[in-house]
Design brief:
By secondary structure, the chain is of the alpha/beta class. The protein folds into four domains: about 1-40, no CATH class; about 45-200, Alpha-D-Glucose-1,6-Bisphosphate, subunit A, domain 3 (Alpha-D-Glucose-1,6-Bisphosphate, Chain A, domain 3, 3-Layer(aba) Sandwich); about 205-445, Alpha-D-Glucose-1,6-Bisphosphate, subunit A, domain 3 (Alpha-D-Glucose-1,6-Bisphosphate, Chain A, domain 3); about 445-570, TATA-Binding Protein, CATH 3.30.310. Helices cover about 40% and strands about 20% of the residues. The protein has 17 helices and 24 strands. The strands form four sheets. Strands 17, 18, 19, 20, 21, 22, 23 and 24 form an eight-stranded antiparallel beta sheet that branches. A seven-stranded mixed beta sheet has the order 1-2-6-5-3-4-7, with helices on both faces. The chain has a five-stranded mixed beta sheet with strand order 9-8-10-11-12, sandwiched between helices. The longest helix is centred in the N-terminal third of the chain and has 18 residues, at about 65-80. The two termini are about 25 Å apart. About 50% of the residues are buried.
Amino acid sequence: MEIEEIIKNASAWLADTFDPQTREEVQLLIDKDPDELRERFYKNLEFGTGGMRGTMGAGTNKINKYTLGKNTQGISNYLKQQFPGEQLKVAIAYDCRHNSDTLAKVVADVFSANGIKVYLFSDLRPTPELSFALKYLNCHCGIVLTASHNPPEYNGYKVYWQDGGQIVPPHDHQIIQEIEKLSFADINFKSNEDLIQYIDKEIDEAFINASVANAGFGAKNKDDFSIVFTSLHGTSITLLPEVLKRAGYKNVHIVESQAKPDGDFPTVASPNPEEPEALALAITLADELNADMVIGTDPDGDRLGIAVRDNNGKMTLLNGNQTMILMTRFLLENWKKDGKINGNQYIASTIVSTPMMKVLAENYQVKYREALTGFKWIAKMIVDYPNQQFIGGGEESFGFMVGDFVRDKDAITAALLACEIAASAKSNGSSFYKDLIECYLEMGLYYEKLISLTKKGISGADQIKQMMIQLRENPLKSLDGSRVIRIEDYANSTRLNVETSTTEIMDIPKSNVLIYYTEDGSKIAARPSGTEPKIKFYFSVKGQLENAENYDQAIGALNQKIDRIIKDLPLD
Protein backbone atom coordinates (compact mmCIF):
# COMPACT_ATOMS: atom_id res chain seq x y z
CA MET A 1 0.00 0.00 0.00
CA GLU A 2 1.36 3.42 -1.02
CA ILE A 3 2.07 6.01 1.66
CA GLU A 4 -0.57 8.35 0.21
CA GLU A 5 -3.28 5.73 0.74
CA ILE A 6 -1.99 4.99 4.25
CA ILE A 7 -2.16 8.68 5.16
CA LYS A 8 -5.69 8.82 3.73
CA ASN A 9 -6.71 5.84 5.91
CA ALA A 10 -5.09 7.40 8.95
CA SER A 11 -6.63 10.81 8.35
CA ALA A 12 -10.08 9.26 8.56
CA TRP A 13 -9.27 8.64 12.23
CA LEU A 14 -9.08 12.41 12.82
CA ALA A 15 -12.86 12.73 12.42
CA ASP A 16 -15.22 13.40 15.32
CA THR A 17 -16.21 9.73 15.25
CA PHE A 18 -13.04 9.07 17.27
CA ASP A 19 -12.26 10.30 20.77
CA PRO A 20 -9.71 13.12 21.36
CA GLN A 21 -7.00 10.81 22.68
CA THR A 22 -7.18 8.61 19.57
CA ARG A 23 -7.16 11.62 17.24
CA GLU A 24 -4.12 13.04 19.02
CA GLU A 25 -2.26 9.71 18.82
CA VAL A 26 -2.92 9.37 15.08
CA GLN A 27 -2.00 12.98 14.30
CA LEU A 28 1.32 12.49 16.07
CA LEU A 29 2.04 9.45 13.90
CA ILE A 30 1.17 11.36 10.71
CA ASP A 31 3.47 14.21 11.73
CA LYS A 32 6.46 12.33 13.12
CA ASP A 33 6.52 8.56 12.56
CA PRO A 34 5.74 7.40 9.01
CA ASP A 35 7.09 3.87 9.60
CA GLU A 36 4.83 3.26 12.58
CA LEU A 37 1.95 4.91 10.71
CA ARG A 38 2.39 2.38 7.90
CA GLU A 39 2.39 -0.55 10.33
CA ARG A 40 -0.84 0.65 11.93
CA PHE A 41 -2.83 1.47 8.80
CA TYR A 42 -1.53 -0.68 5.92
CA LYS A 43 -4.28 -3.28 6.52
CA ASN A 44 -7.19 -4.22 8.73
CA LEU A 45 -6.51 -6.62 11.58
CA GLU A 46 -7.88 -10.01 10.50
CA PHE A 47 -9.34 -13.12 12.08
CA GLY A 48 -6.87 -16.02 12.33
CA THR A 49 -7.00 -19.55 13.74
CA GLY A 50 -7.57 -18.18 17.24
CA GLY A 51 -9.65 -15.12 16.38
CA MET A 52 -8.31 -11.59 16.15
CA ARG A 53 -5.04 -10.84 17.90
CA GLY A 54 -2.63 -7.93 17.73
CA THR A 55 -0.80 -5.19 19.58
CA MET A 56 -2.82 -2.44 21.21
CA GLY A 57 -3.01 1.14 19.99
CA ALA A 58 -4.81 3.39 17.53
CA GLY A 59 -5.13 2.18 13.95
CA THR A 60 -6.92 -0.30 11.70
CA ASN A 61 -4.18 -2.89 12.27
CA LYS A 62 -4.36 -2.60 16.06
CA ILE A 63 -6.54 -3.76 18.93
CA ASN A 64 -8.56 -0.83 20.22
CA LYS A 65 -12.14 0.13 21.10
CA TYR A 66 -12.93 0.98 17.49
CA THR A 67 -11.63 -2.15 15.77
CA LEU A 68 -13.31 -4.30 18.43
CA GLY A 69 -16.40 -2.10 18.39
CA LYS A 70 -16.71 -2.53 14.64
CA ASN A 71 -16.35 -6.31 15.00
CA THR A 72 -19.03 -6.33 17.67
CA GLN A 73 -21.40 -4.19 15.62
CA GLY A 74 -20.95 -6.54 12.67
CA ILE A 75 -21.60 -9.58 14.86
CA SER A 76 -24.69 -7.89 16.31
CA ASN A 77 -26.06 -7.34 12.81
CA TYR A 78 -25.26 -10.93 11.85
CA LEU A 79 -26.93 -12.38 14.96
CA LYS A 80 -30.14 -10.51 14.12
CA GLN A 81 -30.09 -12.00 10.63
CA GLN A 82 -29.42 -15.54 11.88
CA PHE A 83 -31.93 -15.56 14.75
CA PRO A 84 -34.79 -13.26 13.73
CA GLY A 85 -37.37 -12.60 16.42
CA GLU A 86 -35.32 -14.21 19.22
CA GLN A 87 -34.06 -12.46 22.35
CA LEU A 88 -30.37 -12.62 21.55
CA LYS A 89 -27.91 -13.45 24.32
CA VAL A 90 -24.11 -13.28 24.46
CA ALA A 91 -21.53 -14.13 27.12
CA ILE A 92 -18.30 -12.16 27.54
CA ALA A 93 -15.13 -13.03 29.47
CA TYR A 94 -11.69 -11.47 29.67
CA ASP A 95 -8.22 -12.27 30.92
CA CYS A 96 -5.48 -10.45 32.85
CA ARG A 97 -4.12 -8.36 30.02
CA HIS A 98 -3.90 -4.60 30.02
CA ASN A 99 -7.22 -3.09 28.94
CA SER A 100 -8.99 -6.47 28.79
CA ASP A 101 -11.56 -5.39 31.37
CA THR A 102 -12.26 -2.03 29.73
CA LEU A 103 -12.39 -3.53 26.25
CA ALA A 104 -14.76 -6.24 27.51
CA LYS A 105 -17.07 -3.50 28.79
CA VAL A 106 -16.87 -1.72 25.42
CA VAL A 107 -17.91 -4.96 23.70
CA ALA A 108 -20.73 -5.40 26.21
CA ASP A 109 -21.86 -1.82 25.59
CA VAL A 110 -22.10 -2.33 21.83
CA PHE A 111 -24.03 -5.57 22.14
CA SER A 112 -26.45 -4.04 24.65
CA ALA A 113 -26.85 -0.95 22.49
CA ASN A 114 -28.09 -3.29 19.79
CA GLY A 115 -30.73 -4.79 22.08
CA ILE A 116 -28.74 -7.94 22.90
CA LYS A 117 -28.72 -9.44 26.39
CA VAL A 118 -25.16 -9.58 27.76
CA TYR A 119 -23.76 -11.87 30.45
CA LEU A 120 -20.45 -10.25 31.43
CA PHE A 121 -18.09 -11.89 33.90
CA SER A 122 -17.52 -9.57 36.85
CA ASP A 123 -13.80 -10.34 36.88
CA LEU A 124 -11.23 -12.20 34.84
CA ARG A 125 -11.90 -15.87 34.05
CA PRO A 126 -10.26 -18.65 31.99
CA THR A 127 -11.27 -19.04 28.35
CA PRO A 128 -12.71 -22.57 28.80
CA GLU A 129 -15.18 -21.20 31.35
CA LEU A 130 -16.54 -18.84 28.68
CA SER A 131 -17.17 -21.77 26.34
CA PHE A 132 -18.93 -23.57 29.18
CA ALA A 133 -20.93 -20.48 30.25
CA LEU A 134 -22.13 -19.84 26.72
CA LYS A 135 -23.79 -23.26 26.60
CA TYR A 136 -24.90 -23.18 30.25
CA LEU A 137 -26.75 -19.89 29.67
CA ASN A 138 -28.05 -20.87 26.21
CA CYS A 139 -26.34 -17.95 24.53
CA HIS A 140 -26.12 -17.40 20.80
CA CYS A 141 -22.56 -16.11 20.85
CA GLY A 142 -19.59 -15.56 23.14
CA ILE A 143 -16.53 -13.30 23.23
CA VAL A 144 -13.25 -13.62 25.12
CA LEU A 145 -10.83 -10.71 25.38
CA THR A 146 -7.42 -12.41 25.42
CA ALA A 147 -4.15 -12.71 23.56
CA SER A 148 -3.38 -16.12 25.03
CA HIS A 149 0.39 -16.45 25.55
CA ASN A 150 1.50 -13.46 23.44
CA PRO A 151 3.75 -10.69 24.88
CA PRO A 152 2.25 -7.96 27.14
CA GLU A 153 1.62 -5.44 24.35
CA TYR A 154 -0.90 -7.80 22.70
CA ASN A 155 -4.59 -8.32 23.20
CA GLY A 156 -7.21 -10.21 21.25
CA TYR A 157 -10.83 -11.05 20.56
CA LYS A 158 -12.06 -14.63 20.25
CA VAL A 159 -15.57 -15.25 18.91
CA TYR A 160 -17.63 -18.31 19.88
CA TRP A 161 -20.89 -19.61 18.41
CA GLN A 162 -23.88 -21.13 20.20
CA ASP A 163 -22.37 -24.65 20.23
CA GLY A 164 -19.60 -23.32 22.50
CA GLY A 165 -16.85 -23.59 19.86
CA GLN A 166 -15.04 -20.80 18.08
CA ILE A 167 -16.62 -19.65 14.84
CA VAL A 168 -15.98 -21.73 11.72
CA PRO A 169 -17.31 -21.54 8.14
CA PRO A 170 -19.73 -20.33 7.04
CA HIS A 171 -20.24 -18.06 10.06
CA ASP A 172 -16.69 -16.68 10.16
CA HIS A 173 -16.72 -15.55 6.52
CA GLN A 174 -20.24 -14.14 6.77
CA ILE A 175 -19.40 -12.23 9.95
CA ILE A 176 -16.35 -10.75 8.25
CA GLN A 177 -18.55 -9.64 5.34
CA GLU A 178 -20.91 -7.91 7.78
CA ILE A 179 -17.98 -6.18 9.48
CA GLU A 180 -16.54 -5.02 6.16
CA LYS A 181 -19.86 -3.36 5.25
CA LEU A 182 -19.51 -1.01 8.20
CA SER A 183 -17.72 2.24 8.80
CA PHE A 184 -16.51 3.18 12.27
CA ALA A 185 -19.31 5.74 12.42
CA ASP A 186 -21.82 2.86 12.29
CA ILE A 187 -20.77 1.54 15.72
CA ASN A 188 -23.41 2.02 18.40
CA PHE A 189 -21.50 2.56 21.65
CA LYS A 190 -24.52 3.78 23.66
CA SER A 191 -24.97 0.96 26.14
CA ASN A 192 -28.24 -0.23 27.62
CA GLU A 193 -27.14 -1.11 31.16
CA ASP A 194 -30.44 -2.90 31.80
CA LEU A 195 -29.33 -5.56 29.33
CA ILE A 196 -25.93 -6.18 30.98
CA GLN A 197 -25.91 -8.81 33.73
CA TYR A 198 -22.73 -9.61 35.66
CA ILE A 199 -21.99 -13.29 36.27
CA ASP A 200 -19.51 -15.12 38.48
CA LYS A 201 -20.14 -17.59 41.33
CA GLU A 202 -23.03 -19.58 39.84
CA ILE A 203 -21.10 -20.25 36.63
CA ASP A 204 -17.90 -20.96 38.58
CA GLU A 205 -19.66 -23.57 40.67
CA ALA A 206 -21.25 -25.27 37.66
CA PHE A 207 -17.96 -25.31 35.75
CA ILE A 208 -15.97 -26.69 38.70
CA ASN A 209 -18.49 -29.49 39.19
CA ALA A 210 -18.45 -30.36 35.49
CA SER A 211 -14.65 -30.34 35.38
CA VAL A 212 -14.37 -32.73 38.33
CA ALA A 213 -17.10 -34.97 36.90
CA ASN A 214 -15.35 -35.25 33.53
CA ALA A 215 -11.73 -35.62 34.66
CA GLY A 216 -12.00 -37.21 38.09
CA PHE A 217 -11.29 -40.96 37.99
CA GLY A 218 -10.90 -41.79 41.67
CA ALA A 219 -7.12 -41.93 41.81
CA LYS A 220 -5.85 -43.48 45.03
CA ASN A 221 -3.38 -42.13 47.59
CA LYS A 222 -3.85 -38.50 46.59
CA ASP A 223 -2.42 -37.34 49.91
CA ASP A 224 0.86 -38.89 48.82
CA PHE A 225 0.89 -36.94 45.55
CA SER A 226 2.51 -33.50 45.54
CA ILE A 227 1.72 -30.83 42.92
CA VAL A 228 3.31 -27.46 42.17
CA PHE A 229 1.03 -25.11 40.24
CA THR A 230 1.71 -21.81 38.50
CA SER A 231 -0.86 -19.69 36.72
CA LEU A 232 1.91 -17.56 35.11
CA HIS A 233 0.09 -14.40 36.29
CA GLY A 234 -3.04 -15.50 34.45
CA THR A 235 -6.65 -16.50 34.96
CA SER A 236 -6.45 -20.14 36.02
CA ILE A 237 -5.74 -19.05 39.61
CA THR A 238 -9.48 -18.28 39.84
CA LEU A 239 -10.52 -21.93 39.32
CA LEU A 240 -7.81 -24.56 39.20
CA PRO A 241 -6.88 -24.65 42.92
CA GLU A 242 -10.54 -25.22 43.78
CA VAL A 243 -10.94 -27.90 41.07
CA LEU A 244 -7.96 -29.81 42.49
CA LYS A 245 -9.27 -29.39 46.04
CA ARG A 246 -12.73 -30.69 45.10
CA ALA A 247 -11.10 -33.68 43.42
CA GLY A 248 -9.30 -34.53 46.65
CA TYR A 249 -5.83 -33.08 46.11
CA LYS A 250 -4.62 -31.42 49.31
CA ASN A 251 -0.90 -31.34 48.61
CA VAL A 252 -0.97 -28.46 46.10
CA HIS A 253 1.71 -25.75 46.24
CA ILE A 254 1.16 -22.49 44.37
CA VAL A 255 4.04 -20.41 43.01
CA GLU A 256 3.06 -17.29 44.91
CA SER A 257 5.27 -14.89 42.93
CA GLN A 258 3.27 -15.82 39.81
CA ALA A 259 -0.16 -16.17 41.42
CA LYS A 260 -1.32 -12.56 41.11
CA PRO A 261 -2.86 -11.78 37.68
CA ASP A 262 -0.60 -9.24 35.96
CA GLY A 263 -0.62 -8.25 32.29
CA ASP A 264 3.09 -7.38 32.44
CA PHE A 265 3.98 -11.01 33.28
CA PRO A 266 6.92 -9.70 35.34
CA THR A 267 8.58 -13.01 36.25
CA VAL A 268 8.76 -14.57 32.77
CA ALA A 269 10.10 -13.59 29.37
CA SER A 270 7.03 -15.22 27.83
CA PRO A 271 3.92 -16.54 29.65
CA ASN A 272 3.88 -19.65 27.48
CA PRO A 273 3.99 -23.04 29.21
CA GLU A 274 5.40 -24.53 26.00
CA GLU A 275 8.70 -22.86 26.90
CA PRO A 276 10.78 -24.41 29.71
CA GLU A 277 11.83 -20.99 31.03
CA ALA A 278 8.21 -20.14 31.84
CA LEU A 279 8.05 -23.01 34.34
CA ALA A 280 11.52 -22.44 35.82
CA LEU A 281 10.26 -21.02 39.13
CA ALA A 282 7.73 -23.82 39.47
CA ILE A 283 10.37 -26.47 38.80
CA THR A 284 12.70 -24.88 41.35
CA LEU A 285 9.93 -25.03 43.95
CA ALA A 286 9.14 -28.61 42.97
CA ASP A 287 12.75 -29.60 43.56
CA GLU A 288 12.74 -27.89 46.96
CA LEU A 289 9.59 -29.79 47.93
CA ASN A 290 10.43 -33.02 46.07
CA ALA A 291 7.04 -32.64 44.34
CA ASP A 292 5.81 -35.19 41.82
CA MET A 293 4.43 -32.86 39.14
CA VAL A 294 4.48 -29.28 37.92
CA ILE A 295 1.46 -27.86 36.11
CA GLY A 296 1.47 -24.43 34.48
CA THR A 297 -1.15 -22.65 32.40
CA ASP A 298 -1.01 -19.75 29.97
CA PRO A 299 -2.72 -16.41 30.78
CA ASP A 300 -6.19 -17.35 29.56
CA GLY A 301 -6.10 -20.85 31.01
CA ASP A 302 -6.46 -22.95 27.89
CA ARG A 303 -2.90 -24.26 27.40
CA LEU A 304 -1.30 -26.63 29.88
CA GLY A 305 2.38 -27.34 30.47
CA ILE A 306 3.37 -30.39 32.50
CA ALA A 307 6.72 -31.28 34.02
CA VAL A 308 7.31 -34.64 35.70
CA ARG A 309 10.26 -36.54 37.06
CA ASP A 310 12.14 -38.63 34.52
CA ASN A 311 13.81 -41.96 35.26
CA ASN A 312 16.70 -40.13 36.93
CA GLY A 313 14.43 -38.06 39.16
CA LYS A 314 14.95 -34.85 37.19
CA MET A 315 11.96 -32.58 36.50
CA THR A 316 11.38 -32.64 32.75
CA LEU A 317 8.92 -30.59 30.69
CA LEU A 318 6.92 -32.82 28.39
CA ASN A 319 5.76 -31.59 25.00
CA GLY A 320 2.13 -31.26 23.96
CA ASN A 321 2.18 -34.42 21.86
CA GLN A 322 3.45 -36.49 24.78
CA THR A 323 0.85 -35.26 27.25
CA MET A 324 -1.89 -35.62 24.63
CA ILE A 325 -0.97 -39.25 23.98
CA LEU A 326 -0.92 -40.22 27.63
CA MET A 327 -4.12 -38.34 28.52
CA THR A 328 -5.98 -39.82 25.55
CA ARG A 329 -4.73 -43.31 26.34
CA PHE A 330 -5.87 -42.95 29.96
CA LEU A 331 -9.36 -41.90 28.84
CA LEU A 332 -9.55 -44.75 26.36
CA GLU A 333 -8.39 -47.27 28.95
CA ASN A 334 -11.10 -46.13 31.36
CA TRP A 335 -13.79 -46.17 28.67
CA LYS A 336 -12.66 -49.68 27.75
CA LYS A 337 -12.65 -50.82 31.40
CA ASP A 338 -16.20 -49.50 31.81
CA GLY A 339 -17.32 -51.33 28.67
CA LYS A 340 -18.33 -48.10 26.91
CA ILE A 341 -16.40 -48.57 23.65
CA ASN A 342 -18.67 -49.98 20.95
CA GLY A 343 -17.22 -48.50 17.75
CA ASN A 344 -19.27 -45.31 17.95
CA GLN A 345 -16.57 -43.28 19.69
CA TYR A 346 -13.75 -41.15 18.36
CA ILE A 347 -10.69 -39.21 19.41
CA ALA A 348 -9.31 -36.24 17.51
CA SER A 349 -6.21 -34.23 16.80
CA THR A 350 -4.77 -31.92 14.14
CA ILE A 351 -2.76 -32.29 10.94
CA VAL A 352 0.45 -30.96 12.54
CA SER A 353 0.25 -33.16 15.64
CA THR A 354 1.78 -36.59 16.25
CA PRO A 355 0.75 -39.49 13.95
CA MET A 356 0.74 -41.61 17.10
CA MET A 357 -2.83 -40.48 17.83
CA LYS A 358 -4.05 -42.50 14.85
CA VAL A 359 -2.18 -45.57 16.07
CA LEU A 360 -3.72 -45.10 19.51
CA ALA A 361 -7.22 -45.02 18.03
CA GLU A 362 -6.57 -48.22 16.09
CA ASN A 363 -5.33 -49.97 19.23
CA TYR A 364 -8.55 -49.16 21.10
CA GLN A 365 -10.84 -49.66 18.11
CA VAL A 366 -12.24 -46.15 18.06
CA LYS A 367 -12.39 -43.73 15.15
CA TYR A 368 -9.68 -41.16 14.63
CA ARG A 369 -10.58 -37.77 13.18
CA GLU A 370 -8.05 -35.20 12.07
CA ALA A 371 -8.62 -31.47 11.69
CA LEU A 372 -6.82 -28.33 10.67
CA THR A 373 -4.76 -26.54 13.30
CA GLY A 374 -6.91 -24.82 15.89
CA PHE A 375 -9.33 -26.25 18.40
CA LYS A 376 -12.31 -24.72 16.64
CA TRP A 377 -12.03 -27.54 14.09
CA ILE A 378 -12.10 -30.23 16.79
CA ALA A 379 -15.13 -28.52 18.35
CA LYS A 380 -16.79 -28.52 14.91
CA MET A 381 -16.54 -32.32 14.80
CA ILE A 382 -18.89 -32.55 17.78
CA VAL A 383 -21.47 -30.60 15.77
CA ASP A 384 -20.79 -32.55 12.58
CA TYR A 385 -21.09 -35.98 14.23
CA PRO A 386 -23.87 -35.56 16.80
CA ASN A 387 -24.58 -39.30 17.00
CA GLN A 388 -21.01 -40.25 17.87
CA GLN A 389 -19.22 -39.82 21.19
CA PHE A 390 -16.15 -37.62 21.47
CA ILE A 391 -13.87 -39.08 24.14
CA GLY A 392 -11.09 -36.52 24.06
CA GLY A 393 -8.32 -35.09 21.97
CA GLY A 394 -5.78 -32.37 21.56
CA GLU A 395 -3.12 -30.68 19.55
CA GLU A 396 0.62 -30.34 19.82
CA SER A 397 0.46 -26.77 21.13
CA PHE A 398 -0.31 -27.88 24.70
CA GLY A 399 -4.08 -28.00 24.25
CA PHE A 400 -6.43 -30.78 25.32
CA MET A 401 -10.20 -31.26 25.65
CA VAL A 402 -11.87 -33.87 27.85
CA GLY A 403 -15.30 -34.78 26.52
CA ASP A 404 -17.57 -32.13 25.03
CA PHE A 405 -18.82 -30.08 27.98
CA VAL A 406 -16.26 -27.44 26.97
CA ARG A 407 -15.75 -26.87 23.25
CA ASP A 408 -12.22 -25.47 23.32
CA LYS A 409 -8.90 -26.50 24.78
CA ASP A 410 -9.26 -26.55 28.53
CA ALA A 411 -6.22 -26.43 30.78
CA ILE A 412 -8.35 -26.54 33.93
CA THR A 413 -9.93 -29.94 33.28
CA ALA A 414 -6.82 -31.28 31.52
CA ALA A 415 -4.69 -30.40 34.56
CA LEU A 416 -6.95 -32.47 36.78
CA LEU A 417 -6.82 -35.35 34.31
CA ALA A 418 -3.00 -35.20 34.30
CA CYS A 419 -2.94 -35.32 38.10
CA GLU A 420 -5.29 -38.30 38.10
CA ILE A 421 -3.00 -40.15 35.67
CA ALA A 422 0.14 -39.37 37.65
CA ALA A 423 -1.40 -40.12 41.05
CA SER A 424 -2.81 -43.43 39.77
CA ALA A 425 0.56 -44.35 38.29
CA LYS A 426 2.38 -43.54 41.53
CA SER A 427 -0.05 -45.62 43.58
CA ASN A 428 0.68 -48.53 41.21
CA GLY A 429 4.45 -48.18 41.56
CA SER A 430 4.88 -46.40 38.24
CA SER A 431 4.93 -42.72 37.19
CA PHE A 432 3.59 -40.39 34.50
CA TYR A 433 6.95 -40.62 32.74
CA LYS A 434 7.15 -44.43 32.93
CA ASP A 435 3.59 -44.74 31.64
CA LEU A 436 4.56 -42.58 28.65
CA ILE A 437 7.49 -44.85 27.86
CA GLU A 438 5.12 -47.81 28.10
CA CYS A 439 3.03 -46.18 25.35
CA TYR A 440 6.10 -46.01 23.12
CA LEU A 441 6.93 -49.63 23.79
CA GLU A 442 3.40 -50.62 22.77
CA MET A 443 2.93 -48.41 19.72
CA GLY A 444 6.32 -47.30 18.47
CA LEU A 445 8.56 -44.40 19.40
CA TYR A 446 7.41 -41.09 17.97
CA TYR A 447 9.24 -37.86 18.62
CA GLU A 448 8.18 -34.33 17.69
CA LYS A 449 9.75 -30.90 17.66
CA LEU A 450 8.58 -27.40 16.73
CA ILE A 451 10.60 -24.50 15.38
CA SER A 452 9.02 -21.04 15.19
CA LEU A 453 10.65 -18.23 13.23
CA THR A 454 9.47 -14.73 14.13
CA LYS A 455 9.16 -12.33 11.18
CA LYS A 456 7.62 -9.04 12.27
CA GLY A 457 5.97 -6.28 10.28
CA ILE A 458 5.35 -5.86 6.56
CA SER A 459 8.78 -7.18 5.55
CA GLY A 460 8.35 -10.16 7.84
CA ALA A 461 5.00 -11.03 6.29
CA ASP A 462 6.65 -10.92 2.85
CA GLN A 463 9.48 -13.22 4.03
CA ILE A 464 6.98 -15.76 5.37
CA LYS A 465 5.05 -15.62 2.11
CA GLN A 466 8.22 -16.22 0.09
CA MET A 467 9.27 -19.16 2.26
CA MET A 468 5.94 -20.89 1.60
CA ILE A 469 6.21 -20.14 -2.13
CA GLN A 470 9.70 -21.63 -2.19
CA LEU A 471 8.54 -24.84 -0.49
CA ARG A 472 5.64 -25.18 -2.94
CA GLU A 473 7.34 -24.24 -6.21
CA ASN A 474 10.64 -25.99 -5.49
CA PRO A 475 9.58 -29.04 -3.47
CA LEU A 476 12.24 -30.94 -1.58
CA LYS A 477 13.19 -34.31 -3.05
CA SER A 478 14.53 -35.84 0.17
CA LEU A 479 15.06 -35.08 3.86
CA ASP A 480 17.92 -36.61 5.83
CA GLY A 481 18.54 -38.93 2.89
CA SER A 482 15.00 -40.30 2.85
CA ARG A 483 12.92 -39.75 -0.28
CA VAL A 484 9.86 -37.51 -0.09
CA ILE A 485 6.96 -39.76 -1.12
CA ARG A 486 3.93 -37.55 -0.48
CA ILE A 487 3.18 -33.83 -0.31
CA GLU A 488 -0.08 -32.47 1.09
CA ASP A 489 -0.91 -28.87 0.23
CA TYR A 490 -3.87 -27.66 2.24
CA ALA A 491 -3.96 -24.34 0.41
CA ASN A 492 -5.53 -26.15 -2.55
CA SER A 493 -6.59 -29.36 -0.72
CA THR A 494 -4.35 -31.62 -2.80
CA ARG A 495 -2.35 -34.72 -1.93
CA LEU A 496 0.49 -35.52 -4.35
CA ASN A 497 1.88 -39.04 -4.57
CA VAL A 498 5.41 -38.24 -5.66
CA GLU A 499 6.21 -41.80 -6.75
CA THR A 500 3.25 -42.07 -9.13
CA SER A 501 2.89 -38.33 -9.89
CA THR A 502 -0.82 -38.59 -9.16
CA THR A 503 -2.85 -36.03 -7.25
CA GLU A 504 -6.05 -36.46 -5.28
CA ILE A 505 -8.34 -33.91 -3.64
CA MET A 506 -8.54 -33.95 0.18
CA ASP A 507 -11.91 -33.43 1.84
CA ILE A 508 -10.82 -30.76 4.30
CA PRO A 509 -11.13 -26.95 4.44
CA LYS A 510 -8.35 -24.96 2.82
CA SER A 511 -5.50 -23.61 4.93
CA ASN A 512 -1.99 -22.32 4.29
CA VAL A 513 -0.23 -25.52 5.39
CA LEU A 514 2.23 -27.72 3.50
CA ILE A 515 3.25 -31.19 4.73
CA TYR A 516 6.04 -33.44 3.44
CA TYR A 517 6.10 -37.18 4.17
CA THR A 518 9.24 -39.26 3.67
CA GLU A 519 9.86 -42.92 3.00
CA ASP A 520 11.21 -43.56 6.51
CA GLY A 521 8.07 -42.22 8.21
CA SER A 522 9.15 -38.66 8.91
CA LYS A 523 6.61 -35.85 8.64
CA ILE A 524 7.46 -32.15 8.23
CA ALA A 525 4.81 -29.44 8.17
CA ALA A 526 5.21 -25.73 7.40
CA ARG A 527 2.54 -23.27 8.46
CA PRO A 528 2.40 -19.50 8.96
CA SER A 529 0.80 -18.69 12.31
CA GLY A 530 -2.71 -17.29 12.18
CA THR A 531 -2.28 -15.17 15.30
CA GLU A 532 1.42 -14.24 15.50
CA PRO A 533 4.08 -12.93 13.07
CA LYS A 534 5.67 -16.37 12.82
CA ILE A 535 6.19 -19.27 10.48
CA LYS A 536 6.15 -22.65 12.20
CA PHE A 537 7.83 -25.90 11.22
CA TYR A 538 6.56 -29.11 12.82
CA PHE A 539 8.75 -32.22 12.79
CA SER A 540 7.70 -35.77 13.57
CA VAL A 541 10.06 -38.73 13.28
CA LYS A 542 9.68 -42.39 14.19
CA GLY A 543 11.97 -45.00 15.64
CA GLN A 544 11.92 -48.26 17.54
CA LEU A 545 12.16 -48.69 21.30
CA GLU A 546 13.19 -52.20 22.33
CA ASN A 547 13.17 -51.62 26.09
CA ALA A 548 12.58 -48.81 28.56
CA GLU A 549 16.27 -48.64 29.50
CA ASN A 550 17.16 -47.46 25.96
CA TYR A 551 14.61 -44.62 25.94
CA ASP A 552 17.04 -41.71 26.44
CA GLN A 553 19.41 -43.06 23.81
CA ALA A 554 16.58 -43.62 21.31
CA ILE A 555 15.19 -40.12 21.84
CA GLY A 556 18.69 -38.68 21.41
CA ALA A 557 19.02 -40.40 18.04
CA LEU A 558 15.64 -39.06 16.88
CA ASN A 559 16.58 -35.57 18.04
CA GLN A 560 19.74 -35.76 15.95
CA LYS A 561 17.65 -36.90 13.00
CA ILE A 562 15.44 -33.81 13.30
CA ASP A 563 18.56 -31.61 13.45
CA ARG A 564 19.72 -33.13 10.17
CA ILE A 565 16.30 -32.59 8.58
CA ILE A 566 16.36 -28.94 9.66
CA LYS A 567 19.63 -28.46 7.77
CA ASP A 568 17.90 -29.64 4.59
CA LEU A 569 15.16 -27.00 4.85
CA PRO A 570 15.34 -23.49 3.33
CA LEU A 571 14.85 -21.58 6.59
CA ASP A 572 16.66 -18.35 5.65
